[in-house]
Amino acid sequence: MEEKKLKHLELTQGVVNRLANNSALLKGWSVTLVAALLALSVATEQKIAFIWIALVPLIVFWILDAYYLWQERLFRAVYDNVRQKNEDDIDFGMNPQQFVGGERTWSATFWSTTLRLFYLSLIVTMFVVIGILSSQTTTSTKDSSHSGTDGAQNTTPTKNRGNS
After folding, report:
1. CA dist 138 to 13, 48, 133, 145, Å?
2. Residue 104, helix vs strand vs coil
3. pLDDT tens, residue by residue, 132-160
């Protein structure tokens, strides 16, 4: 393979590798964040609030991950374009915007099977936990209402009538 073409392919592959690494890091942070906030929600009084709080960064991570995957796909198209060029046509151009369209749009990438399965499974897990915690909260509220108005037992001492 010609030297210019090989160098251009190496540069493009370096960009693809960095984008793929960023995408993997976002997935790792997503799982870590959701797990930490779910664990925190179980251990605190504001159980459901932590899960709703986790939903916002999870959606932001999904958007960022889709962006990185979209850029990765565009740079793969750059790589493929350079691979097919003659040595004399190599200009070291790295602008991927000429390849936008069809399956290579941000919205198509956002709804790609891999991202949809990953992030929707995390969101579904969060809603399942919300359902479980909500049912536990309503059950504990019903149990406490049966034992008194505030859930505490009546501990007022009664007078011993036999000694009066």
Report:
1. 55, 12, 9, 11
2. strand
3. 887 876 676 666 665 555 545 555 555 55
